[in-house]
Amino acid sequence: MTGLIEVFGHGGDVETAAARFGGNAADFLDFSANINPLGPPREVLEALEQGLHTVLRYPDPGHRALKMLLSDRLGLTPDYISVGNGAAESMALILLGLAPRRVGTVEPGFSEYSALSRQFGAEVHHVRGREELDWRAEPKDIENLMERVDLLFLGQPNNPNGVQYPLEVLQQLARKAEITGTILVIDEAFIDFIPESQRQSLAPRLNEYPQVIIIRSMTKFYAIPGLRLGYAMGRPELITAMTEKQVTWSVNGLALIAGEACLRSGESFEQETLTLVSHERERLTAGLEGYGCNVTRGEANFILAALPEPWTATSMQAALGERGILIRSCAMYPRLGERHVRFAVKDAEANGRLLETLRNVIGLDEITELEEGGKSDGTAIL
Ligand SMILES: Cc1ncc(COP(=O)(O)O)c(C=O)c1O
């Protein structure tokens, strides 16, 4: 099953939306991709403008300047780091470099874990997240899965539900990985949206976990999905296996310039993002719950919700799409149902427009008017 706009399996496809709903691709208010609503830091746009003339040169195939900055920030030597054309390329390089025969996933999870694994010839096995755990899997179930697979993907926070596993669970899984010989790939594409004190990550002590690779994306937090940039961290043997499979120059020169500027952009952009996202996530959650949605309490810059009956992801996508607003259907995620959708957390104005449009679409205005009318003339509203 696919949603109305997820013909390539993902949100953010404004071209498909324009073909389906009419209008210009650029005019949609897009809640289907989870990108920092502040846009790229000012320093990044300036660096790109100043760096435009460098397109006549080949980019550094060793990504050395960016790696040095990442190495400083992460407290890891450069041989622990590989830079990729988005976190998606890092996933592909892990699969190509390590060639697992059996891959494990937790469902619901990011669809590329299983799609890429199959693309590269691996068998995919999964465990199920439980609704009562906000769609996390039982750690014991993940450990059992590890006994059957060579490599396991885990989202932290997980997409589409936005929840983290506690640090102790990650440590336990990393230890289990040493026993079973499984590579544990932890996808932290969205972890920058969680305040540092609340992040549950093995990254600060990665050298204690030889079977763990951590992937991060720079496209979401720094709002450069069109440029593509991400990185992976792990012990040097694993990183070398990945980079040996990388197409030379796959990370383009402007992406490298942008990445360096992102890492130099300072704390105020990070702080502003965290404050905005946590405030707006609470506001959107309260609004959606007020409209009868069943919201999963996540910590990332997106919200998973089950729509109130009789709405389905498809009927809501159509109703909002016709009004210029895109949301992500989650009906195709294993374990989720036809009422599940995901909303990105955007800025106050965009979120306000979403809530107002939802209110009209769900028909709450009419209900309120009826109720008010009912109260004034004393008639009961059934
Ligand atoms: C959980 C998760 N990981 C990785 C990616 C890919 O990120 P990138 O744009 O850096 O390739 C996505 C993109 O949506 C994602 O949702």
Structure commentary:
Helix content is 40%, strand content 14%. It has helices spanning 14-21, 42-51, 64-74, 87-98, 111-119, 139-146, 167-180, 236-243, 253-264, 267-290, 313-321, 348-362, 364-377; strands spanning 29-30, 81-84, 102-107, 123-128, 151-155, 183-187, 212-217, 230-233, 294-295, 302-306, 325-326, 328-329, 340-344. The protein has a seven-stranded mixed beta sheet, sandwiched between helices. Helix 5 (111-119) links the parallel strand 3 and strand 4 (123-128). It is globular. Pyridoxal-5'-phosphate (PLP) is lined by residues 86-88, 110, 155, 159, 187, 189, 217, 219, 225, 230.
Topology (SSEs and partners):
Elements: H1 14-21, E1 29-30, H2 42-51, H3 64-74, E2 81-84, H4 87-98, E3 102-107, H5 111-119, E4 123-128, H6 139-146, E5 151-155, H7 167-180, E6 183-187, E7 212-217, E8 230-233, H8 236-243, H9 253-264, H10 267-290, E9 294-295, E10 302-306, H11 313-321, E11 325-326, E12 328-329, E13 340-344, H12 348-362, H13 364-377
Parallel strand pairs: 1-11, 3-4, 3-5, 5-6, 6-7
Antiparallel strand pairs: 2-8, 7-8, 9-10, 10-13, 12-13
State the main characteristics.
single chain; 382 residues; alpha/beta; Aspartate Aminotransferase, domain 1; Aspartate Aminotransferase, domain 2; four-stranded antiparallel sheet; 13 helices; 14% strand; disordered C terminus; binds pyridoxal-5'-phosphate
